[in-house]
Structure formats: C-alpha cells, structure tokens
C-alpha cells in the first residue's frame, strides 16, 4: 500500500493506492495520526485506488477514525471500491465511518 498527502484549504487529502492491509499501520501512524495532534483537523481519505482491504486494514481504519474522533478531528472515506464497500457494509462499519461516493462529495460534506 502507498499513501500520498496533499494539504488543501481547510482539509488534508490522503490518497491510498494498492491493497489496504497491515502495511497501513505504519503509514497511518507515521503520516495520518500526527495530523490529529491539532484539534479540528479534517481529512478526506481517498480509497479509490485501493480495490481491496484485509481485516488488518479494516482495523487500521477503525483505529485511525477513533483517534480522529477522540481529538476532535473528522475523517471522511471517499471513493470506496465495490469490494471495500461490501466489506464495510457486511461488518456494519458503514454505520461507523463517514463515507462519500467521491472526493468532491467528501469535500462538500466538510464545507457544510
């Protein structure tokens, strides 16, 4: 898995590519978790280039969102592949995560 960050006015766009798996732990810990040291940080996590996710990857998303929520931040997942959407739906985590169809929709939600 790879992770790229882009800082925009009012939010950070984090884009993953490749399968979201146990490699997410180190990347999220190094690049995303520190963003929530500042209260109110907003992140759009673009998963559109990640066609698959493992149980470990799901766990890392849960930890990331819990960290954001604890520190007054907000994460919106965007561009879920059909496989990732099914995994989150069947595990009922689609109720826990804030999800948008695409990055532009996630940005719009952040601005409301």
How would you explain this protein's 3D organization?
The protein is of the alpha/beta class. It has a single domain, classed as STAS domain (Transcription Regulator spoIIAA). 39% of the residues lie in helices and 27% in strands. Strands 1-2-3-4-5 form a five-stranded mixed beta sheet. Strand 2, helix 1 and strand 3 (42-49) form a beta-alpha-beta unit.
Short description:
With 112 residues, the chain is an alpha/beta fold. It has 4 helices and 5 strands, in the order ββαβαβαβα. It has one domain: STAS domain (Transcription Regulator spoIIAA, 2-Layer Sandwich).
Using the 3D structure, state the CATH architecture: 2-Layer Sandwich
Considering the protein shown, what is the CATH homologous superfamily? STAS domain
* CATH fold group: Transcription Regulator spoIIAA
Q: What structural class results from the helix and strand content?
A: alpha/beta
Low-confidence stretches: none
Order of helices and strands: EEHEHEHEH
Query: What proportion of the residues form beta strands (DSSP E)?
Result: 25-35%
Counting DSSP E segments of at least 2 residues, the number of strands comes to: 5
Q: What does the radius of gyration come to?
A: 13 Å
Net shape: globular
């Amino acid at each position: 898995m790879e992770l790229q960050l882009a800082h925009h006015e009012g939010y950070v766009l984090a884009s993953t590519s490749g399968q979201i798996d146990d490699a997410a732990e180190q990347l999220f810990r190094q690049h995303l978790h520190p963003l929530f040291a500042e209260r109110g940080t907003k992140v759009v996590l673009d998963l559109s280039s990640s066609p698959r996710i493992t149980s470990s990857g799901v766990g890392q998303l849960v930890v990331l969102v819990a960290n954001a929520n604890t520190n007054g931040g907000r994460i919106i997942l965007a561009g879920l592949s059909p496989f990732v959407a099914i995994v989150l739906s069947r595990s009922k985590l689609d109720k826990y995560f804030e999800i948008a169809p695409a990055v532009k929709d996630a940005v719009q939600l952040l601005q409301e």
